[in-house]
Design goal:
homodimer; about 325 residues; alpha/beta; eight-stranded mixed sheet; two-stranded antiparallel sheet; 15 helices; about 50% helix; about 15% strand
Chain lengths: ~325, ~325
């Protein structure tokens, strides 16, 4: 039995806390806002982000960060990408984080173009890369929280650390594979959102399953081109954290990124769509980051370029699709 | 402008004939049954397989095979897998097939374990492999027939032939990539149906999108293992004809293979499900072929094995899923 702090009591934090608790581990769930922590602690659920999933009394829900992380075998981040740096900066002043850091956060830091594990290590200099394990894959929190069979990857430069995380989380409804390719797993999780927007646009203009499958396959091809230029391994993008996560995101009626694309495909502007959303669509920022990276490294990314044109230069979505289809004939490889 | 015979006036045959016709080519559509050919010729649609898609008068629909194939630049097969051999055996006695053969047929010949292009070459010995081009990818006929943007692969050992097929078919709604890996393209198209059954079983027992994505990703891993042992290139299985086709099949409400899995996941027996279906579910035979091949080549295929156990040994589907999830912990690669 090991002891964990899970940072972030949203859907993903609760789902991960439940996986650990059901394997017999001790888990404390940290929520930044005291009143929300109190509500969740007393009602035993988060009605906004994971309604109907009960948090057992063995999991304490607290708002004190220092108490939360003290003496744990691992601290698990289920924080949104835009608060990750500030929480770990606070931690760096507050207390020495022991044990491993499991990062369940996906995204790219826009100003720095850093991956999330790099943000953690840069926010708290005492956390070395070999103490960080990234957990990622096709894992809607709504399903993980309900014990629906799910399969993910635990990636670390430290294979021992990856195997420890595997053994902690693995159970009859949660299968964990290890990987040594942290960069590949993190780039896949961040860049898939660009393709999810493209898939949504295709849905919005009334195209079909053939079109969406083509965007997914050719999308992974260009993500792989960029990712390998950034040091990742090509095979990782065909795996659970790349293609796997992309498939669930593009199929999901709930994906915010796919939704943004669909609305734009129907003719709305980006400002209009974003203005009406409570939550951030990570993929809009990821599109800017991917464009910047593709130009910097001189990588051909036709789908990303068309999504960028549609989102930021109001290119007609149907015209963008025709332009994608009628490029010069090519070989597949 | 080139001249084509499309063999088979089902959904796929009509859809391919329309792509060619809209590129300005001359196309004749061959249907084996005279009365059905007459109905289609007169009504200008196939109400059973592609209702609502109109066949223009420039496309002749005939039942005479010799006339159909005489003097064409290419003969396009959109025949069901179980009649492919007999049609090409008839052709071998009837007339010399000139030009290229485009094979749009997917499957494995169960008795011989041959791929479809191998069946063609074995049925008519005068057709050498370098005259055959395989056309495959995520391409529901319902969408191709309606001009929904679709992307496929044209694969041949003869790169010149593949490029000719690419140039004939390519248009604003039909993008064709070339490939040199005929074996990979054909094995992907045939073996995906085993995983489609697994995905259906997962749906039938009430599992979720996470589960299905995991089956797709780990399914391609084991298909790739088998395919490379049979001479295919690994990368092909990540492409349009492998993963791409698998994605549309597993997402589709219309896939017969996914449907068979879903009904079995709900508790029906294979005999019962097959007995109630008008059409054949290719994946049931593909599961037997894949099991035979995996044993012959000593390839670990855990998903195929569980599907085989469920279909033919009445293993409980939920138990099979738990057995898949709780195998020994592994690395992803």
């Amino acid at each position: 039995m090991a002891s964990f702090a899970v940072l972030g009591a949203g859907g993903w934090g609760i789902a991960l806390a439940l996986r650990l608790e059901q394997n017999g581990h001790k888990v404390v769930l940290w929520e930044a806002f005291p009143d929300r922590a109190k509500t969740i602690r007393e009602s035993r659920e988060n009605p906004d982000f994971l309604p109907g999933v009960i948090i057992p009394p063995t999991i304490d829900v607290i708002d004190d960060l220092k108490t939360a992380i003290q003496g744990r075998d691992a601290v698990v981040s289920a924080l949104p990408s835009h608060v990750l740096r500030s929480v770990f900066e606070i931690l760096s002043k507050l207390s020495f984080v022991q044990g491993l850091i499991v990062s369940g956060t996906k995204g790219i830091e826009n100003e720095t173009l850093l991956r999330m594990s790099e943000v953690i290590a840069s926010a708290d200099k005492r956390i070395s890369a070999d103490r960080i394990v990234v957990l990622s894959g096709p894992s809607h929190a709504e399903e993980v929280g309900r014990g629906i069979p799910t399969t993910v990857v635990a990636a670390s430069s430290n294979s021992d650390a990856a195997r420890r995380v595997q053994s902690w989380f693995m159970g009859p409804a949660f299968r964990v594979y290890t990987s040594g390719d942290v960069a590949g797993v993190e780039w896949g999780g961040a860049l898939k959102n660009v393709i999810a927007i493209a898939a949504g646009i295709s849905d919005g203009v009334g195209f079909g399953d053939n079109t969406k499958a083509a965007l997914i396959i050719r999308g992974i091809v260009e993500i792989t081109r960029l990712g390998t230029a950034l040091g990742a391994k090509a095979d990782t993008f065909s795996g659970l954290s790349g293609m796997g996560d992309l498939i669930v995101t593009c199929a999901s009626r709930h994906s915010r990124n796919r939704f943004v694309g669909e609305e734009i495909g129907k003719g709305r502007t980006l400002e209009d769509v974003l203005g009406s959303m409570a939550m951030v669509a990570e993929g809009v920022r990821a599109t800017q980051a991917a464009m910047a990276l593709s130009e910097k490294h001189d990588i051909d990314m036709p789908i990303t370029r068309e999504v960028h044109e549609i989102l930021f230069n109001r290119k007609n979505p149907k015209q963008a699709m025709v332009d994608l289809m009628t490029r010069n004939p090519k070989a597949e490889g």
